[in-house]
Amino acid sequence: MTEWDPSKPILEIENLSISFFTRLREIPAVMDFSCTVMPGEAMGLVGESGCGKSTVALGVMRDLGVNGRIVGGSIRFKGQDLTTMSLDGLRKLRGSEIAMIYQEPMASLNPAMKVGRQLIEVPMIHRGASAAEARAQARALVEDVRLPDPDRILDAYPHQLSGGQQQRIVIAMALMANPALLILDEPTTALDVTVEAGIVDLVKDLGRKYGTSMLFISHNLGLIMETCNRLCVMYSGEAVESGNITDVFNKMRHPYTQALFRAIPLPGADKNARPLRAIPGNFPLPHERPPGCNFGPRCDYFQQGLCDARDIPMAPVEGDDRHESRCLRFDEIDWAAKWKPEKEVEASQVGEVVLRMDDVRKYYEVAASALFSGGDTKVVKANETLSFDARAGETLAIVGESGCGKSTFAKVLMGLETATAGKIMLFDENVQSTPIQMRNTDTVSSLQMVFQNPFDTLNPSMTVGAQIIRALEIFKVGKNTAERRQRMLELLDLVKLPREFAERMPRQLSGGQKQRVGIARAFAGDAKVVVADEPVSALDVSVQAAVTELLMEIQRKNHTTLLFISHDLSIVRYLSDRVMVMYLGHVVELGTTDQVFAPPYHPYTEALLSAVPIADTTVEKRRIVLEGDIPSAMNPPSGCPFQTRCGWKSSVPGNLCETEVPPMVTVAEGHQLKCHLAEDILRRMEPVFNFAAE
Amino acid sequence: MEELGWLAIFGRMAVQFLPVWVAMALVFGLSITWRRRLGLYGKLFDSTIGMIGFGIVIFWLFTAVFADLIITHDPLAQVSQMRNVVPGTPLPNPDGRYEYYLLGGDSIARDVFSRMVMGAREVLRIAPFAAMISFMIGIALGLPAGYFGGRLDTGLTFVANLVLAFPVILLFFLLVAPEIQFTLIPTVMAGVLFLVPILFLMVLLNARFFTQPGKRNLYVGGVLVFGLWAYSGLAFNADPLGFWGISPNILNVFVAVVFVNAPTVFRIVRGITLDIKTRDYVAAAQTRGEGPWYIMMWEILPNARGPLIVDFCLRIGYTTILLGTLGFFGLGVSPESPDWGSTINDGRRLLTVYPHPALVPAFSLMSLVLGLNLLADGLREESLKD
After folding, report:
1. Which DSSP string do the residues of A362-427 spell out, in sequence order?
2. Using an 8 Å Cβ cutoff, are A396 and A593 in contact?
3. A234 three-class SS
4. Is the ipTM beyond the 0.85 threshold?
5. Contact A441 B289 (CB under 8 A)
6. Do B211 and A453 touch (CB under 8 A)?
7. Is the model's pLDDT at B385 over the cut of 70?
8. Please, what is the Cα angle at B29 between B23 and B31, to 5 degrees?
9. pTM above 0.95, yes or no
10. In this structure, are strands A11-21 and A68-77 parallel, antiparallel, or unpaired?
């Protein structure tokens, strides 16, 4: 390695352009991208899917596959140009000087090798360390990434660890060679929020401890704010704004950044008074980018003849440290102006109870051994004593992390599974033991579902129109094909899709458009109760806002009851009237949104609230990081389901938490908690969020 | 007359194949012009491998179609003095017949070239249909096994494994052995095998159109009438109009081929179904109260088509080889038949002295199977790309 002055940037990317070559055309993925990362600095790359942020990371690793090529610019790492480096030189650099952490931890670990062996390999290959020395280092690092019982972990296979533990191992592996630069590509997207909070904490601490520079790629502005010193906002292959976190968050100077912030539900947003603002239009395809400013066609400040006349360079913002914006008009725009919605909408009126669940339980019996049936069977309690009611026109959010039983709840409600015990009343009709085949068309069509994954929600081999018409046929809407076709076109109008889309195949639609079709299909039979299973979690921020607004609008119009299943507390806070928090099959807290988001909290709700990254520098948050992972539903802890991770356990006398499932306590009108904590302790709880005075 | 040189032989063969060239040029021209609108089929023309495979396959397909125009002699006719003659030998007294045996004569003085061309027709008449029926049966059993799971799945998978574990050649010998042929077993098996496609189509259409009784009755009725008509002829040789018919020999071959292929298809379909049934659009269909057969036939099956099409191409190839094997053992089709397997077997005895009667059909068989495999490769490759 040549001499390198530590006061110089560790990574310098200058005017980098990367293209992918398909058989039809060249697709420019990244254009004119520049950024510098100083030693010990954490740089965030943020943008929507397809904006080229991962391509930049892969470009730095020179791992672009057969189709990708760097077509311009330079990447200098410690002064060496990576774009011209030989493969041999790159091999020495990768893994030892630059390490990368990917989104899916299981895909980064070799499933056939013990974790310990995989960790030991790194120093042995790069430094020629002895096995014993490497093992000692591995053990120390496993401790550093806060995994319990390092010896056992080193001796485990990857599949024996949970997702959070796997990601910690991947981080440990990346740190084994003590790299100067760590690239993290959405490292926590596949994990639950409370686990994510732990990883984020870890990454921050390790960065401080080892002085590693980081390139942190994420679509989540809140996460970037918590982890990075600087950030770079990307749009359609270009960096549009870069600067210090505080500068960009408080003094944004690019319309896209502003639009992005208006589209995410920050704590101050409110569905009636201050709705989210979706970015109009669609993300341009890489080969259909407009001339001039890429964001031009979607921009509020677009000026014809200026913004579309020529390529726009990055320009420094006066008075800030390395704050740049790719906008010609950022000096003219009044950035302080608040956005006003065209019209204020009234809150939807809450009517009578349409759905009542009473002590519903769902147990699965799992044979202990799959090969030979018989022997012991285990009971998995997916839902325990679920009781609540939902009223017409109301949005009830069901919140919880994976494995909490929210999907089972949806299945039981829809009739895809029947409840083990308890009562489900839908419009005074008892449906708990009626599977869907036995329900009459009315019941089925009035209780519909919107699914999570937009790429999975539509049958890929049927046109959009045919799929909606099929739903109409099944719900016996319309007398003949012509009538149904008319109704189908009206449904497309309802979800604000052009009527031509009826003839399109799902693969010709974007994620948000598919989700709209899914919504249209759910409302084909005038659904009265709609279960929305994470309908926006797979969508990009700007599209998320639009789909959320659409759901709200249809709800107001049709007076629909919306059961909104989500793990994202920001969006829940924004749109729901009441919230139900679930953990391991139990409802741990139930109340109106205001009640749940303010003390007294259930200890789990408190941790969940604290874990959600918030992209607002004025919000101060108490950090509560939960230890460990969610226990398996196969083997739940005794007593209170949350006792293994609870931070308040010591405040409960005796071993009550370990022996008894707490009762549901009513702490206020309509606000229930399932906790052993005494009332006076609950009263003393402090709020998780504090708004700094503006 | 002079014996023909190899150049002349190939030249004359190319002339004989003229209708095939014209048809191929048309297909390629049209397909390449419109390839952007033809979905997966159109994408095939972006891959060299796929195009070569497709070319070989349609070459044999058109050869089978235009066989009557291509052949130079009656494939069964014997011409004295032409026993085992080398390729390009002129006929002693043509009398208005074609003057040469282009690829020589076989051990009983028949034209090898014409037999090869007619053999393509024999092979392509059986292989694709046998593969298709295998597919329908494999799909009809694999879908419910994968979708419902449980006991049904365990049972069907066990039976499939049982059939797969049985030695194939032994099975063929048993099926075509006279002792078995003259019992009821082949007829009963044919009765079951040919019934499945009819049921398959009826369920398929009923699931889709039961919401529109008018259309449903028309479609399902149509399938029923047409299906039973064909069924009576094919399975029991009792077609009142005498249009559908199948010789007992070919029926046996059919039964054998289907019996061997269906379990493999079953396993593929079952695997894909297990994967696709977890998709949200299947859940969406369930939550709007669709019946299980609609979900299987219209939500799952169309989305499993990619791997199935690829496997279909490969399976036609296997079936062709299987037919060849059967012919080689003298099982199956009639002894006089020009199909490639039997011809290879006929030529085998004098292989060291006169290799050409056996080599020609062997090369044909190889090229067709190779073409199908290349086509399958091309399709697989292209279907994986964007």
Report:
1. EEEEEES-SSS-SS-EEEEEEEEEEEEEEETT-EEEEE--TTSSHHHHHHHHHTSS--SEEEEEET
2. no
3. strand
4. no
5. yes
6. no
7. no
8. 100
9. no
10. antiparallel
Amino acid letter, A570:
S
Structure tokens at A157: 């296979």
Nearest by CB: A459 against B212, B286, B303: B303
CA quadruple A184, A189, A190, A196: dihedral sign: positive
Alpha helices in chain B (DSSP H): 6-16, 18-33, 39-43, 48-65, 67-70, 112-148, 150-165, 168-176, 178-181, 185-209, 213-236, 248-276, 280-287, 292-294, 305-328, 340-348, 356-384
Q: Which domains does chain A have, with CATH numbers?
A: 11-228 (3.40.50.300), 352-581 (3.40.50.300), 598-691 (no CATH)
- Tell me which residue in A441, A456, A525 faces B281 most closely, judged by beta carbons: A456
CA neighbor of B381 nearest in space, from B55, B92, B157, B51 = B51
Q: Test A448 with B287 for CB contact under 8 angstroms.
A: yes
* Bridge partner residues of A12 (DSSP): A36, A76
B77-131 pLDDT tens trace: 888 888 888 888 888 877 778 888 888 888 888 888 888 898 888 888 888 888 8
**Gap between the Cα atoms of A594 and A397, Å rounded:** 13
Residues of A in contact with B279 (CB under 8 A): 456
Residue A97: which of A17, A39, A141 has the closest Cα? A39
Q: pLDDT tens, A228-259?
A: 888 888 888 888 888 888 888 888 888 888 88
HEC readout, A545-563? HHHHHHHHHHHHHHCCEEE
A412, A426 Cβ separation under 8 angstroms: no
Chain B nearest C-alpha distance from A96 (Å)? 34
Work out the minimum CA distance from B282 to partner chain A, whole angstroms. Answer: 8
Quote the pLDDT of residue A666.
Answer: 84
Domain boundaries, chain B: 127-316
CA A591 to chain centre: 24
Structure-block tokens of residue A485: 């076709």
Size of interface A-B (CB pairs under 8 A): 63
Residues of B in contact with A474 (CB under 8 A): 211, 288-290
Tell me which chain A residue has its CA closest to the CA of residue B46.
Answer: A23
Residue A449 Cα, gap to closest chain B Cα (Å): 7
Query: CB distance from B303 to chain A under 8 Å?
Result: yes
Closest CA of chain A from B19, distance in Å: 34
Q: Which of residues 255-294 of B touch A (CB under 8 A)?
A: 279-281, 283-291
Chosen for mutation from B287, B296, B299, B303 (greatest number of chain A CBs closer than 10 Å) is B287
